[in-house]
Every structure is written in structure tokens, then in C-alpha cells.
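User: Sequence in, structure out. Go.
Assistant: Echoing your sequence, followed by the C-alpha cells.
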Amino acid sequence: MHLSRVALVICVSLLLVFSAAGQQISGSMNGTVRDSQQAVIAGAKITLSNAQQGTSREAQTSADGSFVFMQLQPGTYELTVEAAGFKKFTQKEINLFASDRLALGNVVLEVGQLNEQVTVEAQATAVQTTSAERSGVITTRQVQDVAMLSRSVFDLARSIPGVVAGNSTSGLGVGSINANGNRNSQNNYTLDGVTNMDTGSNGGSLATVNPDSIAEMKVITNSQPAEFGRASGAQIQVVTKGGSRDFHGTGYFFHRHEDMNANTWRNNVDGRARPFYRYNYAGFNVGGPIFIPKKFNTSKEKLFFFIGMEWQNQLTPNNLTNVTVPTDLERLGNFSQAKKRKAKVEELVRAAATKKK
């Protein structure tokens, strides 16, 4: 029975992996290998490794010295180039975001032995040369470090050039996002490559994800590639985290209370207490490799998992609404008492202000 359960877990995990392969968040990476005299180097061995998961892919440069890797998942990569008669070249911290077509340009090898190595520790800011798109990316570090009034990552879209975004103060909805003057109902939302549009309003996402589960959010504001359609506004892609070779987990609880709020002037006039304003967010995230010691995925570089859950409890009743209706005299066209009523309201306001002082 125990082995059957293990087999079931593995089968379900594999199904999830295969379904993820068809999602359109993958990108590509290309470049050209040359020597110090700018002559192309054919047949060089190229190894591309995922820094978090330890997976790797290999390729060889073609006759014109070029190489390309397709269907790459978003992440941080390390590129290694080896060729006879040249020093081994390694470039670290290559960040590939959702649907990126990343051009590395010329990779220049120095003459030497393979046991000698040239390592580039940081990646310079890349200029987009393989497509006309203009976009901005909110990384997982920004999601964690930038203060948000709500628990909606869409509020951070305002930090991207050309985007104006309103607040989602409840943390449940989507802020009003206008990209380059387009209407907020002309955006397209995807979650891990799957459409996430609320087609009822056409103005927001259908499913929400807690910020701690988000790896990145990419907002393409102009000249979207051909694979994107449907909307004339921004293409907003949210990518959730995936597991790595090490186990990681977090737990959290956020609380907001009316004691930190000021009362409204109308409540002060009427002697009413501050209204309830309470938000409670509790959740957890955990991810890591799926393996069976000495039997399955012992190297922890083939199968991974990530689970994130959040619970939201709110107590925010609507404020009292004050409506002024015509008096009996005003219904008959007699407004002689209107001035006295206005004076009474002004007196109450002054009294409340004096009491507050």
C-alpha cells in the first residue's frame, strides 16, 4: 500500500510537469562564440545550467559560431563555453524572465588551456535586440522588499515606466492598471502561461496568488511579440515559484486593525467610534525536490515541487451613508428653513472640532 501511494504521488507530479511544459512562459537564449580577433569558433561546447535546480543542457556552436537554447523556464542560469586551444569561459547570474528572447551577443574566448578559466560574475544590463517589445519586470526580491498597502502584487506595476496603477486596498482585487494610455479593460492577464482573465468584467484577474508565491511579474507595455493577442493594452504575466534542490519554507501572519486609523469627521460629529477595519492574512509556502533516497532522483535535479496557500479573513463593514432629503416645507416649495438647517450643521462641525482640540 505504501509503494502504491508513492507511485501515485510520482505519477501526479509527472503529469504536473508535462502540463507545465505547454505553458507559454518559456524563453530563449542565443549568442555567438568568437576569439579575440573576432573570428567565429565552430564546434565549441556550450553548457547552460539552472542555478537553482542544478539542471543543465548542452549544445554546440554551428559553422557561424552561433548557438541557441529554446524552451527555457524563467530563472537564473550559468553559461559555460569550452573549445580546444582556448580558456574555459563561464558567465554567471544570467537572468532569464518570462517569454524573454535573451541575446548574449559575442562570447569572446581567450587563447589558453582548458584548465584555465575566465569567469564573469555579473551580467551587464542587456539591450533588447531580438524583439521590439518594451517591458518591465517585478522580481521576487522586489515583491518581498517593496512596501505594499495591499497583498496584491499588481499594485507594484506602477514602478514600471509607462504604467499608472491604482491601489487594491482590500488585497483581493486588481489595481487599475493603465499602460501607455490604454484603458484598464484592455489588459491581458496570465498565470504561469494560462489565461487568468475575469471575462465578466474584462478588467482584472480571475485568480489571485499570494505575493510570497510569486517568482516574477512581467508587464509588456508595447510591441508585444506575435504569440500574444486578444488585448491592445499590457500583457501582464505572473510566474509562480518552483522548487529548487534545497528545501525552503516560510510561514506568515499579517494583521491590520482600526486602532491605527483616524476616525472620519462625520463620526466625530455624531459621536460614533471608529468603524471596524481588520484584515488577517495567514499562509505558508514550501518547496523543494521530490526524491526517494537511493532509488529515485537521488541527485535532486529532475523533479521539484512548490506549494503556497493563504487564508484571508476580513471585518470591514460599510460606513454609514448620510443622505439629506427634502423636508415637508421644501416639498411644498418653501425653503425658508434651509438656511437655519445649514447653520445647525456648521455649528455641529465647529463643536466637534473644538472637542477634538
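User: And one key feature?
Assistant: The first strand starts at residue 27 and ends at 35.
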